[in-house]
Amino acid sequence: MRLDVDVSMEYQLGGDERVLLTLEAAETDGQSVLESALDAGDTAPHVLAEEGMVGTRAWAFVAGDRFSLRYRASVEVTRPEIALDALSAAPFHRLPSQVLRYLRPSRFCQSDLFTSFVARQFGPLEGGAKIAAIAAWVAEEMVYSPGASNAGTTAMDSFVAREGVCRDYTHLVCALARAAHIPARYTSVYGPRVQPADFHAVAEVWLDGAWHFVDGTGMSSASELVVIASGRDAADVAFMETESWAQLIAQTVTVSEIA
């Protein structure tokens, strides 16, 4: 499947600013970037060296108080759909070192607070069957509600409120999976069925020696999403970070499936 991505944004800044961008389609398993162009006006983004996480991160040095950006890409997605139920989870001592960080609590995914709940709610299940049950529980219990959460909302906040957006669904899936001793990471993506159209977030869980996608909102699936970046939680993969304040003027994200 080929997906075309078109992102346009404009922000008011507090003055000369360094902007960290994480919004380009990644060269990673299951997808290949056919074309890619990032136009940040007079700024020339400086790509950071590999940090050990999926995705491209780049600094843009902005002179003045306005930042405009256009990003376009064509991506071939070859990732198959794989049913989670039959996949197995590796014991702790057999996990690769690079996935161990995704077992631990993080700022927005306080997995240590969910251990008892996960044992009671999903205890008899194992591996992929447990992840499938977690995803179904999150989909059933949560209400998709734009404006119900903010940049500081954690997995525990969402567990209590039972409402939020893709960011909150993903934090909760990750926290519950980690509490079940299954590595889970937060992944930012583009998807053609995301409504309202925007940057999207899904979880990835480590089963049978590979990462597998879980979208608690049900708005994307493995075969039709474009990976941007992965990390412990949303703090690792924000599409734009600034040192001081930034005010949104306009932003559009369009993802089209090309036959």
Give the tags.
259 residues, alpha+beta, Immunoglobulin-like, C8orf32 fold, 2 domains, 4-stranded antiparallel sheet, globular
Description:
By secondary structure, the chain is of the alpha+beta class. It folds into two domains: 2-78 and 239-258, Immunoglobulin-like; 92-236, C8orf32 fold, CATH 3.10.620. Helices cover 17% and strands 35% of the residues. The chain has helices at residues 115-122, 127-141, 155-161, 166-179; strands at residues 2-13, 17-21, 31-39, 46-47, 58-62, 66-77, 143-144, 163-164, 184-190, 200-207, 210-214, 226-231, 240-242, 246-258. A four-stranded antiparallel sheet has the order 3-6-1-14, with no helix packed on it. Strands 4-5-2-13 form a four-stranded antiparallel sheet, with no helix packed on it. It has a four-stranded antiparallel sheet with strand order 11-10-9-12, with helices on one face. It is globular, with a radius of gyration of 18 Å.
